[in-house]
Description:
With 452 residues, the protein is an alpha/beta fold. It has twelve helices and 20 strands. Helix content is 24%, strand content 25%. Residues 126-324 form the AMP-dependent synthetase/ligase domain. This is AMP-binding protein.
Amino acid sequence: MDASSDPQIALTDAERFPLLDDLSFLNTLKQDALAPKFNFKSGDRLNAIQLSKVKAYKKNYYSTKLFWNEGQTPIWLTDYVQWCFDTVPFYQNKGNQFDSFPTMHRDDIRKQAPLFVSNEANLEELLVYYTSGSTGAKLDVLFDAVSQANWLPQIESVLEDFAISITESSNTTAIALICAQEKTLTYASLSTYLGGAGILKINLNPSEWSHPDNAKKYLEKYKPQILTGDPLAFMALLALLPELRPKAMISSAMKLTTGTKNKLEHYFKCPVIDVYSLTECRNIAYATEIGHKVIRPDLFLEIFDEHHDVPLPNGKRGELVVTGGSNPFLPLIRYRTGDFCSLKIVDGIPYLIDLEARNPVIFFTKSHLKINNIDISNRLSHLPLAGFKMHQRQDKVIEFTGYSNDISPKEIIQLLNVVFKNDIEIQATIQKISQNNTVEKTQYSSELLDDN
Length: 452
């Protein structure tokens, strides 16, 4: 977050948690001698009406998950789209038929955010989330307390597939978001939805702690039930060898390789779940052997041609497009995610097949044989890589930078030589994972154009 984006109005803890009378556990989390130098104050701000809406959201969409069958649309879609046409300025004067409605892009939201606010939204409940812009231009996302809190029922629905539940108690830590960055917001908070259970966001960077061992000791003391974060942060946590046994670890934001997943599960003795989510609408699906299993009945997912506003049939690969959500400050109709996959319905549940973040990139051997980045990802997935960047120069040389504490550049070169049929020059470096990483998300890039 930029300094200019810092909150301008400070709320009291009573205003952050209007339904929680006992804030003693919050004070314990913040004032512990082992605690980090928290730099932010956060609270869910749920009042009684808002909490009832979060609970209704869970009941309506997750008690019995009803998606859609091939060739059909969800039962809620017609009413939702009409509501958007009637109350959201951006969607007005663009026709009133969903089948012919054009797709929209991230830039539409970035440049015209106020036009996406429904005239039924309560502006007094407005919250703003500032993204880092690590995969593109910075995007400020508007939401309210209810749509923010709805991420918890979404996470619960994922955990239910693993027979895991979060204990609701005012003296336990439910979730800890683990970061390993140079700088980020950190805080101790509570969840009204989870009965006052603790919510932590911590940064493992030693500069944020009074003593380098305190991060490990603090987590061991408060034993969060669920750990969330990205693979880099989880591998940085693993390097501390903490005595933690969470119920589950939920990885997002970066690609989780099978090698990293196995390493984390072996040490922490719990499922490590790879969740696909977007800042614009939160959690969407999680990785399984079939593909990414969709968890959100309140989202309608389509696959579109990358360059034209043409929906593709199930089984065809293209760009994932999203309609729906529960945020009155950002209702989505046919929003292009910039991520690519195909869609498959299995026993009434949608799966995203071969999901790959961002635009597909074609690489070439010296003999100009095409290599799809999906094939590269599949090969690399067996290695304990927390992330990587791969670029092909104009002279076809491959430049690879990986983040791992367990593998060598030689291993990367050997594997990529197999993928590229021993017909490529590769320059590989491996950077060690630390508690204050300053790396970007996994990405592919090339200076060569696919001329078909």
